[in-house]
Amino acid sequence: MSKTHLLVRQERSVIGQTESMRTTIKGLGLRGPGSSVVVKNTPSFRGAVKKVIHLISVQETEAPVVKKPAVAAAKKAS
């Protein structure tokens, strides 16, 4: 059974990288070192990951990990 999602975590900064790599990182939804996103395991996302593999770490997962922002949880509790 194939994994359906990829957990992508940015490990290195885009400082000193080409503009193309910066836009690829932004297109993946990453905001800086330490940030992570879950994306679908499709050929287009795999191609983007391959382009910036030296800046990120990737793990295959079965289902996306959903985290609720603290702000939304606080508003709901009020």
In short:
The protein is an alpha+beta fold and 78 residues long. The protein has helices at residues 19-28, 43-51, 70-77; strands spanning 5-10, 36-40, 56-61. The protein has 3 helices and 3 strands.
> How many domains, in number, for the residues?
1
Write the element-wise H/E pattern from the N-terminal end onward: EHEHEH
Query: What are the segments in which pLDDT stays under 50 over at least 5 consecutive residues?
Result: none
Number of beta-strand segments: 3
Spatial extent as radius of gyration: 14 Å
Mean pLDDT: 88
Strand content bin: 15-25%
Polypeptide structure, described:
It is a single chain. The chain is α+β, with helices and mostly antiparallel strands. The protein has one domain: Ribosomal protein L30/L7 (Ribosomal Protein L30, Chain: A, 2-Layer Sandwich), CATH 3.30.1390.20. Helices cover 35% and strands 22% of the residues. The protein is built from 3 helices and 3 strands; from the N terminus they run E-H-E-H-E-H. Strands 2-1-3 form a 3-stranded antiparallel sheet, with no helix packed on it. Helix 1 (19-28) crosses helix 2 (43-51). It is globular.
Descriptive key words:
globular; alpha+beta; 3 strands; three-stranded antiparallel β-sheet; 3 helices; 78 residues
Lay out the secondary structure.
Blueprint: E1 5-10, H1 19-28, E2 36-40, H2 43-51, E3 56-61, H3 70-77
Antiparallel strand pairs: 1-2, 1-3
Helix pairs in contact: 1-2
